[in-house]
Amino acid sequence: MVEIPDSLRSVFSATVHERDGTYVLEVPSGELSYDAVSLGETYRIAVFDAPTSEQDEHESASADRAQSDRQRESPEPPVEEGEVREVTIETVGDQGDGIAKVDRGYVVIVPDTQPGQQPTVEIEQVQQNVAFASVVASDSRSL
């Protein structure tokens, strides 16, 4: 599975064109309208294989647009206060707290945990880009 970084700004389908000895990737105008990209800036891109048929390509492009639209329309956090879930601690933050990532790379900070632990946590506080949780059950397993 491909790991999607937190810095992912946009998902769309495009065709690569050759123009005057260089290659051009056309960015849909909506990506600029929603501030996903800005003129004159440099970005890293990921390239995935194209669908095998024209129908698949149309469906894939529609799905990409729908996903991108959902992300813009509902940037609600993927967790709720009081929710209990299992997480995997991936790293430790500057303050020494464990950091887990859940849906869409959303960050959950869990004190008193270490990378590789897989505790069950209760979400205590939810903010737009981060949640804070406490361990309700430790898992003796680690990655």
Overview of the structural elements:
It is a single chain. The protein has 143 residues and is an alpha+beta fold. It folds into 2 domains: 16-73, no CATH class; 84-137, OB fold (Dihydrolipoamide Acetyltransferase, E2P) (Beta Barrel), CATH 2.40.50. It contains 2 helices and 8 strands; from the N terminus they run ββααββββββ. The chain has helices spanning 29-33, 54-73, and strands spanning 16-19, 22-25, 84-86, 89-92, 98-101, 107-110, 120-126, 130-137. The strands form 2 sheets. Strands 3-7-8-6-5-4 form a 6-stranded mixed beta sheet, with no helix packed on it. Strands 1-2 form a two-stranded antiparallel ribbon. The longest helix is centred in the middle third of the chain and has 20 residues, at 54-73.
> What is the structural class?
alpha+beta
Distance between the termini: 17 Å
How many runs of DSSP E, i.e. beta strands? 8
Biggest sheet, spatial arrangement of strands: 3-7-8-6-5-4
Describe the global form: elongated
Radius of gyration: 19 Å
Largest sheet: 6 strands, mixed
Give the amount of beta strand, in percent.
25-35%
Spans where pLDDT lies below 50 across 5 or more residues = none
Mean pLDDT: 79
Helix content: 10-25%
Q: How many domain regions?
A: 2
The helix-strand sequence is: EEHHEEEEEE
- Count of helical stretches: 2
Quick tags:
143 residues; OB fold (Dihydrolipoamide Acetyltransferase, E2P); 2 domains; two-stranded antiparallel sheet; 2 helices
Q: Nutshell version of this structure?
A:
The protein contains 2 helices and 8 strands; from the N terminus they run ββααββββββ.
